[in-house]
Design a protein that fits this description.
mainly alpha; Ubiquitin-like (UB roll); Receptor-associated Protein; 6% strand; elongated
């Protein structure tokens, strides 16, 4: 059984507990039984190592499980049907492990938490909350809707970025072709003429000679840089650094923060609407926020554990916007804080969609103009000596 380090509050002081438990939620519950107010929990680094497996189709699993349960099958029968249906070894092994835990009398949430490489803590928390209220089908439906909503924003961003990326790739290839093939050919022609060339044309042709001489070395260097960038983007530290870099850009950074907060509010609202306690819900969504906002999340969790309102704690931790703060206060007065958080997320999703449309409509023509200017300048500098030569002949 792994050990969990549980960060708690008692008597106005933060206390760290080491609790052996099957999964993270159980460690939090044991800390609550002992009279502590848990803030967060994480497994010790030497407790166990997760195996890297292929991506588990969580949304598809939820939809199929929901359909089978609506057809009248109980939970065990539905998972047995999914095990028999799926032919993929990785997915089949995960579902079979869940099924064996259910045979042993474990709860569904405990069976899922035993496979953390396939079922994230958020999903386990959703299922665990439904076990107390007896509405597993409704919780699964809520999670499927949650994944679809998150997917809409991601698809919007991906579809909006396809054309600019394609334009940059094609434009870059044309520019490289001009500088790496056409310019060296022209440099030989102008060397044979022996005439004086304009200064910029001389610079461009010197570049062509350099490319022709060291072309292979530069090609290897470019390929190495591209490989290093691709490898670096797979690193978690590099991703965090890139995120921090974008957050410092005024216009993009503000929208990126709104995107992160919208995802945070949607997830938190789904958990609260499903019956998850606020502190456990905050602990579950910790992984959705970047490192710069995790400290603020811990501060808000501590403030809520000390009796502050959710809206006040979020405001003091700078996890709200003016619109979100007003809507949170309305949700607190009406007792619909979970539903109000989902509305906040929907509001900002629509705002982000409008901003993405505006940005792509502005960025695409500017990008085309920039690429056209670069290509035009290169061609003009290549043909400028020919124009001068024709003028001299006349």
């Amino acid at each position: 059984m792994p050990d969990y380090e549980v960060r708690t509050v008692r008597g106005g002081q933060i206390v760290m507990l080491l609790i052996p438990a099957i999964h993270e939620n159980e460690a939090i519950e044991l800390a609550q039984i002992k009279g502590y107010v848990p803030i967060s929990a994480k497994a010790k680094s030497n407790a166990y190592v997760l195996k890297k497996t292929r991506h588990f189709p969580l949304a598809l699993f939820s939809q199929e499980l929901l359909a089978l349960m609506h057809a009248g099958l109980n939970l065990v029968e539905a998972i047995e049907a999914l095990v028999e249906k799926d032919s993929r070894v990785e997915v089949k092994s995960v579902l079979d492990a869940v099924l064996q835990n259910l045979y042993q009398g474990q709860t569904f949430s405990a069976a899922l938490s035993a496979q953390p490489q396939a079922f994230p803590m958020l999903y386990v928390a959703t299922v665990k909350a439904s076990e107390k209220t007896g509405d597993l089908s409704e919780s699964l439906s809520r999670y499927v809707a949650y994944e679809l909503q998150l997917g809409l924003v991601k698809k919007k961003i991906i579809s909006a970025s396809i054309y600019p990326i394609l334009l940059m790739v094609v434009g870059g290839m044309v520019i490289l072709f001009l500088l790496g093939f056409v310019v060296p050919k022209f440099s030989h022609i102008y060397e044979d003429t022996g005439g004086d060339l304009p200064f910029l044309s001389q610079v461009l042709l010197s570049w062509g000679v350099f490319i022709e001489t060291h072309g292979k070395a530069m090609l290897i260097a470019i390929a190495s840089c591209i490989a290093a960038i691709v490898y670096g983007m797979m690193s978690l530290k590099v991703k965090k650094w890139v995120t921090q870099l974008f957050l410092r850009i005024p216009a993009i950074g503000d929208r990126l923060k709104i995107f992160q907060l919208a995802r945070f509010y949607r997830t938190l609202g789904m958990l609260l609407a499903g019956g998850t306690p606020i502190l456990a819900a905050l602990n579950s969504v910790e992984g959705l926020l970047p490192a710069s906002l995790k400290d603020k999340l811990e501060a808000s969790s501590l403030a809520i554990s000390e009796g502050q309102l959710i809206s006040s704690a979020m405001e003091s931790a700078d996890l709200t916007t003016p619109v979100a703060l007003r809507m949170l206060r309305v949700g607190e007065r009406g007792g619909t804080i979970g539903e109000m958080m989902e509305r906040i997320a929907s509001f900002y999703d629509e705002e982000l969609s409008r901003w993405i449309d505006w940005f792509t409509r502005l960025f695409e023509p500017l990008l085309m103009l920039f690429i056209g200017l670069v290509i035009g300048v290169v061609v003009l500098l290549l043909y400028m000596p020919i124009f001068e030569l024709a003028g001299n002949i006349q």
